[in-house]
Amino acid sequence: MIKLSIKQLSAIRELASTRSFTVAASSLHTTQSNLSMTIREAEEIVGLRLFDRTTKFVIPTAAGEAFAVSIGRLLDDLDLHIANLQSIGELSNGTLSIGVTPLLGSTLVAEAIATFSERYPGIVIRMEDAPTHTLVTLLIQREIDLAIGTFDGRAAEIQMQPLFEDRLVALSHPSVGLADTVRWTDLSDKKIIGIGQSSSVGRMIEHAFLSATKRVVRPTIASHHWLTVMALTSYAKGVCIVPSYACLSEFTNTLVRSELIEPNMARTISFASIKGRSLSPAAEAFMNTLICLQK
Hints:
295 residues, alpha/beta, Arc Repressor Mutant, subunit A, D-Maltodextrin-Binding Protein, domain 2, 8-stranded mixed β-sheet, 12 strands
């Protein structure tokens, strides 16, 4: 493979354009002798004379003229790619792909995306809202840059950075009359609107009731979608148990929040990414945006 340096390619293009060692050397911020040496070295590498020189003029040979045109296109493309890289680093353009569980996506992460998009309008954001196991698959397949959710015991390829501890809380219709703080046992005889057992929170809720009441407590109505659970709680005048960030949803405006004790149930919400893979500047900036919203 013939190896010409960027310096040599730039010298050939500039000399072919100006047809003057004096002008070309000035444009390249070098001396005429250095430019002449650079051209000679390039000609030795390609094994062909690229310029005809006399004491009065310098003109490209036919091969040199054609080569200079090709070099011009190559260097222009290279400049464009470098400028694109710089703009990505400066967050003036690019694409960010985020994976998030649906309830997080409609509450806390939605707020973070709005803040981020206002701050970095040139970044295109693509959000995949899916269950945690699907997010892990998307990460491994490199279809998303970053995922947000609960990833305990997940694939070995995944690395996690804790974002915050999230407690489970009770939301109820005002007519239920729950206090600001309630025990799990206080809810065992209520109309429970629950999330499906495919949800990790659904399994936590079942475990908490079993621990507190020594029996399995089944929901009266169950759904696989959190927004449906909260809407049903309002219309059916019942109680639902949700992650605390669910209270950011407008669906909770008519519901009463109660802290849950005995036992206290919490889980860690984390950022997840591929081990050993550097995050893009956009992904790093989005993480910082979400962290700031938590403070």
